Amino acid sequence: MKEMSPLEEIRHSAAHVLATAVLRLYPNTQLDIGPPTDSGFYYDFDSEVPFTPEVLQQIEEEMKKVIKENHRFERQEVSREEAVSIIKKMGQATYKLGRLDDIPEGETISFYRNGEFLDLCAGSHVSYTKKIKAFKLLQTAGSYHRGNAANKQLQRIYGTAFATKDELAKYLEQIEEAKKRDHRNLG
After folding, report:
1. Whole-structure pTM over 0.90, yes or no?
2. What are the phi and psi torsion angles at 42 (to 5°)?
3. Beta partners for 119?
4. Band of the pLDDT at 183, cuts 50, 70, 90?
5. Which of 41, 114, 136, 175 has its CA 20 to 30 A from that of 169?
């Protein structure tokens, strides 16, 4: 398990909160993965519901509720057999069993729970959801499962998260300024 910086932990935890919110609103959604990135986080979903800007807004509101509930992030290490059983019981076999197969034999297999949400994950996370103080969902995009155009196209939700609301505001301002200077829009 690669050691994450405190900011990466916030972003990775926000990705789990995003998945929690999506499953609360759209329980038939299949989950793929949700890593932190240099500028935030994303999570890939297989959902019959198109994630329009209005739906993104609803998901963001649900995320705020999940954070306010202040669930603890709890790590649980399991055997491969237990992991298969947990994934099937969660109804998340479509992509998660393949992700489980990616974990080399002999490596630790772990799940993280926050509230009712459980995800196959190496970690690490913040201790409680309330430690996610400043986040914003930014956009959706199509993404092929495992980056392969032969696979099903999933919906990727991009977001960002920072340690403070000030840092988030500064970042969002930078994005707006960059959009204004974009040569494709200037002409």
Report:
1. yes
2. -150, 165
3. 112
4. confident
5. 114
Q: Which of 53, 78, 79, 66 is nearest to 139 (CA)?
A: 53
Tokens of 71: 């669930």
Q: What's the pLDDT score for residue 61?
A: 98
First to last CA, the chain: 47
**What order do you get walking across the sheet with 153-162 strand by strand?**
30-31, 41-46, 153-162, 134-144
Token couple for 150: 């032969």
One-letter amino acid of 65? K
Q: How far apart are CA 134 and CA 63, in angstroms?
A: 11
The Cα 46–Cα 94 span in angstroms is 9
Count of C-beta atoms within a 10 Å radius of residue 163 = 14
Place of tokens 């709890």: 74
Residues 6+ apart with CB under 8 A from 28: 47, 48
How far apart (Å, rounded) are the C-alpha atoms in residues 152 and 127?
Answer: 34
As beta bridge partners, residue 113 has 74, 118
113 burial (CB, 10 Å; 0-12 / 13-18 / 19+) is middle
Q: HSE of 21 in the Cβ direction (CA atoms, 13 Å)?
A: 26
- Residue 30 exposure: Cα atoms within 13 Å on the Cβ side: 18
